[in-house]
Design a protein that fits this description.
Blueprint: H1 2-13, E1 19-22, E2 28-32, E3 37-40, E4 45-51, E5 58-62, E6 67-72, E7 75-78, E8 83-86, H2 135-140
Antiparallel strand pairs: 1-2, 2-3, 3-4, 4-5, 5-6, 6-7, 7-8
InterPro entries: Bflower
Protein name: 4-fold beta flower domain-containing protein
Pfam family, one: Bflower
Length: about 140
Amino acid sequence: MLAWVGFAAGVQAQDEGERTIFDKDGEARAYLAKDNAIYLFTGESVAYMTNSRQSGFKSIFGMNGEHMGWFVDGIFFNHQQKVVGFFDQAPNVSVQASLIIPEKYPKQRGFRRMTRPEPLRIVNKPFGIYRWASLEAFLRSGMRY
C-alpha cells in the first residue's frame, strides 16, 4: 500500500524529475528538485545534496553552508543518525504516506554560501527500527537569514 500511495502522491506533486520528501507522519513537507536543491512547498530553497566522502552516501548542506546530515537509500539522516525524512519507496520505512500534497509555490532559488567540510564521522546504515527527528526543524536549520 505504501508504494502505491507514495507513487500516486509523487506524480501529483512534482514536475518530472522531482521527488517528494515525507516526514515521520507520512506528510509531504518538501521536495528534491532536478538540480539537487531541496525546497519547501512555500518555494524556499533550504538545502542541497552533494556526493559524500563516504561511498554510497550523499551529504546534505544547508543554504547557510552548514553540513546538516546524510542521504542514503531514500532516507535522510541528521548528525545524530536519526531519520528526518524519506522518499516514497525507501526500504524499511513503514509510515503510510498521505495522499494530500500541498500546492507548490514558485521556487525561490537561494545563494549557496561557502560550505564547511562535512564531519569525518562514519555513518552506519541502520537496519530495522529507526529513531526519528523533525524534518521541518532539520530543513529550516539550513535556511539563510
